[in-house]
Design a protein that fits this description.
alpha+beta, globular, 14% strand, Arc Repressor Mutant, subunit A
């Protein structure tokens, strides 16, 4: 999905979460999502993915964002976890063991698998687009208040 912004930062304020939603875009692909508390300097406002994120946060759209072009630069193990999490649909959730099974995480036991999934989610560069809020029992990169809001929207609380 082309965005019209080949490279740069776009941001807009989201009233439901009382924060800015900021996207980093390179070569038409999203490379980061963050939630600054104040207006980012020199950020553009026009981007189709940003508009979709804002609609999702307002509760106006049931999104899974699976069609959004992203660029992940992470280790192979983390990439497998993040790609598995990206497949969790709107209104669904998985445990860390469920994510590990889908991602084929290689480890000895459940505690190690959960730790591997938790580590990958803490390093998630694109919260909501890679919906770590849909994984139970661990905390990802999505800030707690935004995680709670997303889970409430999707009726996962």
């Amino acid at each position: 999905m082309s965005s019209g912004v080949p490279t740069g930062i776009v941001a807009a304020h989201s009233s439901p979460i009382d924060a800015w939603v900021q996207l980093g875009v390179a070569s038409g692909r999203v490379i980061s999502v963050s939630f600054p508390s104040s207006e980012p300097p020199a950020a553009g406002e026009d981007h189709v993915v940003l508009d979709r994120l804002l609609a999702y946060l307002r509760g106006d759209a049931q999104e899974d964002f699976g069609d959004v072009e992203i660029a992940l630069t992470t280790s192979t193990e983390e990439r497998k976890v993040l790609e598995a999490v990206r497949e969790i649909g709107y209104g669904s959730e998985l445990t860390p063991d469920g994510v590990a099974a889908v991602a084929a995480v290689e480890s000895q036991g459940s505690d190690e698998r959960k730790a591997a999934v938790a580590a990958a989610l803490r390093n998630n560069p694109m919260p909501i687009l890679i919906p770590d809020h849909r994984v139970t029992e661990v905390t990802g990169a999505t800030p707690p208040n935004i995680r709670a809001h997303c889970r409430s929207l999707e009726r996962l609380t």
